[in-house]
Design goal:
The protein is an alpha/beta fold and 493 residues long. Helix content is 23%, strand content 32%.
């Protein structure tokens, strides 16, 4: 994940996790006459960093990042316990899920967003326990449905109207066999979506909360994409944690986290840290420290260590005395109590998710103190390209399949070259799906923009006669009908 212009020392996951090197050998003596952040930044650039964040037990998943316990996956991110999945972000415990975003406990799904416990579901969003269906939104426990919204426990519906199994199969075959007919049907589906009530937030089983995509939480405010939190605020993508403030990912479990980026697998009392995991506690301003590390200050890549400062070993008494002195100096320098400044990030603003959620121009990013990546590291290709044919052409022709696998496709939107892999081609053929003509990054952007932004608006329930008010990610100018939870549940068909 580090581009060629980075000064950092980078190790592959196998080398980084091995015992063939000792991060203590990079120890620095704290200098009270210098900024702590400057000293930490120098240490971080020298100590080897993980090329990609492979936590544990990943098999045949070299081209992926932020993952653990996956098998035979390609270009998946922030994912664990998945198998045979491709081009996905934020997926957990899935099998054969492709080009999807925030999908959990599901199998054989394609272009799905925020779906849970689904099977054979395609082009759908905000669904739970749905199967054998296409183009659904906000449905629960539905089967053999197409282009429907807000249904529960229904079978054989097309555009929210009851039909037969035969009509369902006819419509499915019609829209899947012709790209133009599929796009025409999508337009009908999007128009219907504007007329059916939407719940003001995504989630369930919460008490005293404000946020979106929030489940099983209590006393949780301004949080997004979280589950099983208690007494938390300003947290994103955090799970099974309590008493946390300003934490981005991932928990499972965690307690007393403050201003952290990626901390999890059982943490306690971790502050201002980046990518620290696996039974860590009492860490302050540390990076990539893990595996039963505790009582560390300003350390990088330590495992099974205690009472270290800037990777140097101290006694408990020496550690407590020096950390108190460092904190006082940081307070005087205006460094204490906040996450690292943007200028210290190893990544440029426009190569992080910050650019997706809060897009800036180069000038705007530089004004905030962030860096900007001008180089284009996209693959360069000047050879001939191919245009994928209808899926029927590839079903029974090994020659055609090989031509496709050997060829290069030029994205119809971005102009970037990309290839089709053998496992994904088998997935498309098996499910009668068209071959993509857009680059993965374009498909990712399309999925991303279908989710509401992480921004809240104060609104009233639009059901006539209801006086409930709430915070919602649906902006007032949006065309959808937004209901409070009670009115929405009453309206679900």
């Amino acid at each position: 994940m580090y581009s060629e212009n980075k000064p950092d020392t980078i190790y592959c996951p196998d080398c980084w996790w091995s015992d063939k090197w000792d991060p203590i050998s990079y120890a620095k003596e704290y200098n009270s006459n210098r900024s702590f952040f400057e000293q930490f930044s120098e240490l971080r650039e020298k100590v080897p960093a993980l090329a990609s964040l492979h936590q544990r037990n990943n098999e045949n998943c070299d081209f992926a990042n932020y993952l653990s316990d996956n098998k035979n996956c390609y270009l998946i991110f922030a994912a664990s316990y998945n198998e045979d999945c491709y081009y996905d972000t934020f997926i957990q415990r899935c099998r054969k899920v492709v080009d999807s975003f925030f999908v959990f406990d599901s199998e054989n799904c394609y272009r799905c967003i925020d779906c849970y416990s689904c099977y054979n579901l395609f082009f759908s969003q905000e669904c739970e326990s749905c199967s054998e269906s296409y183009l659904l939104f906000g449905c629960r426990s539905c089967q053999n449905c197409i282009g429907s919204i807000g249904l529960a426990n229904k079978q054989c519906y097309i555009l929210n109207k009851k039909t037969t199994k035969e009509e369902f199969e006819k419509k499915r075959n019609e829209i899947l066999s012709d790209k133009n007919k599929f796009e025409e049907f999508v337009k009908l589906f999007e128009e219907l979506k504007k007329t059916v009530p939407h719940k003001y937030y995504s989630g369930a089983k919460n008490e005293n909360f404000v946020g979106d995509h929030i489940y099983n939480c209590k006393n949780t405010f301004q949080c997004f994409d979280v589950t099983n939190l208690e007494d938390c605020k300003y947290c994103h993508w955090l799970h099974k944690a309590k008493d946390c403030f300003d934490v981005y990912g991932w928990g499972l479990t965690g307690e007393l986290g403050y201003e952290n980026h990626l901390v999890g697998n059982n943490f306690f009392n971790v502050k201002f840290c980046y990518s620290c995991s696996n039974d860590v506690s009492n860490l302050t301003y540390c990076s990539e420290c893990c595996n039963n590390s505790k009582n560390l200050f300003g350390c990088v890549s330590l495992t099974h260590k205690e009472f270290c400062i800037l990777n140097k070993q101290y006694s408990e008494a020496e550690y407590n005395k020096l950390t108190a002195q460092i904190i006082e100096k940081m307070k005087a320098d205006g460094e204490w109590g906040e996450f690292y400044p943007m200028s210290m990030s190893p990544f440029c603003y426009n190569e992080t998710q910050a650019q997706e959620f809060f897009p800036l121009t180069k000038e705007g990013a530089l004004k905030l103190g962030a860096k900007w990546l001008d180089e284009d590291y996209s693959p360069k290709y000047e050879g001939s390209s191919i245009v994928p044919e209808a899926i029927e052409v590839y079903k029974n022709s090994e020659v055609k399949q090989q031509e496709l696998l050997n060829g290069v496709i030029i994205c119809e939107k971005s102009g970037k070259p990309f290839k089709i892999t053998a496992p994904e081609l088998a997935f498309y053929i098996e499910n009668n799906l068209s071959i993509p003509t857009k680059h993965y990054e374009v498909r990712y952007e399309e999925n991303f923009t279908k989710r509401n932004p992480r921004k809240l608006y104060h609104r009233k329930c639009m059901n006539e006669g209801c006086k409930n008010e709430f915070e919602t990610t649906y902006a007032p100018e949006r065309p959808e009908k937004i209901y409070c939870e009670k009115c929405y549940l009453d309206s679900v068909g």
